[in-house]
Amino acid sequence: MTQLPERAINLIVLDMAGTTVADGGLVEQAFTRAAERLGVEPDLEYVRATMGESKISVFRALFGDEDFAQRANTEFERAYAELVDGGRITALPGAAEAIAELRAEGRKVVLTTGFARVTQDAILDALGWRDIADLTLCPADAGRGRPYPDLVLTALLRTGTDDVRRIAVAGDTSYDMLTGARSGAGIVAGVLTGAHDEPRLTAAGATHVLGSVAELPALVRGF
Fold it and tell me: Global pTM?
């Protein structure tokens, strides 16, 4: 492990699905399964528009009723877990290597998600990623999910990072970009391997747009 310069980026907060983990349409498939089980029509247009947001928040917006939103969230998490258990989850090319490289340079890496903890753990187990990062966080760990800054600020507090400007946030959705911008992170990097395109990422606050997370170590070193 190398000694970082005094003002270098020393905390990397990474999204999972679409950023480090290939989604392959699993979120939409899980929403569809959950809607079928609940006897409601899946609003896939809204699901696509809110990719990256905390899933329980999406269901609250869709259905209004808190009890039904909680039921819908439970069904979604169950459906997504079924897809994960069926071998439908893979790491994006270069993601594990990028994380290893960042950590070898002395930087802390935190993986975040809009999923519940049970789903996040299922993904980590399926990939063999339990020890790949310094910390993993879901919305329940932080109080609120994206687009609030809570996940990034919780990562800062739990890793003992001393300055928000020394944080790099990377994700594939506008909600990831809003979270990074609202936290004051020095780098807010959008990646083009997931839900949203470059104009949408930039409009939401991206300071940089990368082809994939594999390009992040070089960006961070040059900051």
Answer: 0.87
